[in-house]
Design goal:
The structure is a single chain. With 433 residues, the chain is α+β, with helices and mostly antiparallel strands. It folds into three domains: 175 residues, 2-Layer Sandwich (Beta Polymerase, domain 2); 64 residues; 163 residues, cca-adding enzyme, domain 2 (Orthogonal Bundle). It is 53% helix and 10% strand. About 2% of the residues have low confidence. Bound molecules: adenosine-5'-triphosphate and magnesium ion (MG).
Length: 433
Amino acid sequence: MNTPNLSSFTRIPASTHGIRPQQLSKAALQVITTLQEAGFTAYIVGGGVRDLLLNKHPKDFDVATSAHPDEVRPLFKRCHLIGRRFRLAHVYFGPHIIEVATFRANIAPDAAEQPAEEIEQHRKHTTTGMILRDNIYGTLEEDAFRRDFTINALYYDPTSGEILDYTDGYQDIQQRTLRIIGDPWQRYREDPVRMLRALRFVSKLEFNIHADSAAPFHNLAALLTHVPTSRLFDEFNKLFMNGHAYANYELIKQYHLLPILFRQTADALKDATVGANFALLIEKALKNTDERIRQNKPVTPAFLFAALLWQPYNLCSLNFQKHHHQTPYIANLSSAAEVISQQNKIIGIPRRLAVFIRETWHLQSLLTSFRKRHITRVIKHPRFRAAYDFLILRAASGEDCQIAVDWWTAYQAGNDAERHELFRNIPRPAAKT
Ligand code: ATP
Ligand code: MG
């Protein structure tokens, strides 16, 4: 990255920034005090400081320290070292975990004072410039410049009350600007997930992304295909299970990331016959998820995958029927397997979620085909509720299945006699799936 001016930083006193130590968790305060009393420097950094400055409730407090993991461990009764990509200490206080990270550097091998081989032992790069492992310890300044965004690189010392700011993050917080630290192109190449983190912070904090920080997205989006699929699944959850799913989806589309993350979805959205309904179905599924999170109702990423891949699944099934002469039943099974396996190449979908997705889809045809022998079986199916909700979503987005929704709604609400009556008046199949 551009060699930062390591000597310049701003001290922001408590009278200016307004954070009080009491706003930290007891556990976080305790960790900082213990480290400082043992002679190390230690700060709260990252989301905790950022969110307190924005009057938001921080999810957690992360600690950055000059102590190496092996020096951290003996200071606490319950402390585990974890992580391959980054070596971290987890300090346990009752149910709370405080993540303690040693200051790290982000120096390009040629700019470093250490011999190149020594650095390469600790750091691995791929040919695209992506960092696979970096455990090069550094100074506080270096730690600030290796972080992703300026607003995430503010260091709060509850003992002095000061915030140390190396990257003008405080000003960016005031101006509600998200800005990546250093050269944007290089920083996204090092870790393409930073593009997704950027969108997540923009929606969550209602910030504007600085034009220079967004400029590389279109060109570098494809680098996301090099990121481990399990990491992208974690990131999917952070993007779509945090109450801002719809806003994040819109940003993903706006910044040309949809064809990379969900190629099949992007293609199906362009389909002349199903595209418009599909767009509405996705929008409703995401907004429903946001609403359920606001109401503290349970949500599962599987339901969103089922929605995002619904028309790819149908289109692929039709293709199997037409070109491979499969029966609809077999074609649906083959299609589900194919569509999920394609999606798995970029975002790893855990097996139990894949089962949920397949069952939700499979039940759609049973819910709309009205075969008598299926009905009592379907209603007892553990995935019935999800499948019924999915059917409602389809009807609401313009698919021809409102009759089935009404029938199943009445069937669930009915007593034995009413169910018997409904059973005698089964509608003709409404939707073809
Ligand atoms: P959240 O509220 O979502 O937890 P956060 O900023 O705390 O936001 P974390 O993923 O918990 O995000 O990461 C903690 C800090 O570690 C970040 O604030 C940032 O300084 C640094 N960080 C995390 N991921 C990266 C990354 N990919 N590249 C550089 N720095 C990162
Ligand atoms: Mg955090």
